Amino acid sequence: MGKLTSFKRSLWVFHASGGSCNACDIEIIAALTPRYDAERFGIKLVGSPRHADVLLVTGAIPKDFADKLRRIYEQMPDPKAVIVIGNCGTSGGVFYDSYNIAGPIDEIIPVDVYVPGCPPRPEAIVDAVVKAWLKLEKLEKQLEGKEE
Amino acid sequence: MSFTLTTPSGFWNPLFWVIFLALFGLISYLIYLRGNPSYKKESDQVKPYLSGNIEPTKEKVQVKAGDIYWGFIEALKGYYKVLEAIHTGDIRDYILWYLGVGAIITFILIGGV
Ligand code: SF4
After folding, report:
1. What is the CATH number of the domain that holds A86?
2. Is A3 inside a domain boundary?
3. Is residue A1 part of a domain?
4. Best probe residue, ligand 1, of A28, A83, A94 (max atoms within 8 Å of C-beta)
5. In terms of domain of life, where is this protein from (chain B) (predicted)?
6. A147 — contact with chain B (CB < 8 Å)?
């Protein structure tokens, strides 16, 4: 069967926003636009989780969105990594203990990298993606090992 | 016996066609082999992405013939309401309408003279 060689070329990222205030989201965009330009490393946002290697999640995740986030995670092909951007998703942030919040995100789906901050700077987001990349390479080796 | 059919615009040979299909199948298989082997067929990974929502049944997402006329029917709702009420599907009703309207036309054309 074919080898998973895609990480050697590029890393595709899907962004799911669950009730964030939009500040984390624009920092993600800032990481991709010319000043930081993560796309020069092949890191790019894609429109469907079915094409993605990494899931970026922002926001405190309201109860209505929890099952949708689970489904989005399920739709990603293996190996996959999840990065939580911002305090909201990491701990609940300003929405901590709110009656309509299903998060923090690691209570809904498994999380690999946390990026605290309200909002975090684009450098931190790029750093998190690099950390996720390392993790994915490890998972990729495990998957390849299983095949042989 | 020759299998080749020659026409002014080209030729057709079933053997060539079979060879082409076999080659096409082989190339498709090679592309398939390069795919992600950890892909799970029985999971959500095969379903279309609809912002995390459950995929509705095919009947619900289909564009029905009635949908094409929606704007037209909506604009002439008053007219269609009356017509639908008298459109019973019973042939005896239609014959009564036919005779009734026929009688009125006949009366207008010759009855009033
Ligand atoms: S962590 Fe702060 S900046 Fe990010 S979505 Fe929450 S409130 Fe907004």
Report:
1. 3.40.50.12280
2. no
3. no
4. A94
5. Archaea
6. yes
Whether residues A75 and B37 touch (CB distance < 8 A) is answered with no
Place of tokens 């309408």: B97
Mutate to test the interface with A, among B44, B47, B51 (most CBs of A within 10 A): B44
Other beta carbons within 10 Å of A133: 18
Contacts of A78 in chain B (CB under 8 A): 36, 38-40
A92 in contact with ligand 1, CB cutoff 6 A: no
User: Pairing state of beta strands A81-85 and A113-115?
Assistant: parallel
pTM of the model: 0.70
Structure tokens at B18: 């079979």
* Closest residue, chain A, to B46 (C-alpha): A75
Domain residue spans of chain B: 55-112
> Residue A2: pLDDT band by 50, 70, 90 thresholds?
very low
> ipTM for the complex?
0.75
CB within 8 Å: B38 and A143: yes
Quote the CA–CA distance of A83 and A54 in Å, as a whole number. 7
| A69 C-beta closer than 6 A to ligand 1 | no
User: What domain count does chain A have?
Assistant: 1
Length of chain A: 148
Mean of pLDDT over chain B: 89
* Of A1, A71, A78, Cβ closest to residue B52: A71
Does any domain span residue A148?
A: no
C-alpha distance across the termini of chain B, in Å:
83
Residue whose C-alpha is closest to residue A108's, from A72, A76, A148: A72
For A57-97, the pLDDT digits (tens) are: 999 999 999 999 999 999 998 888 999 999 999 998 888 88
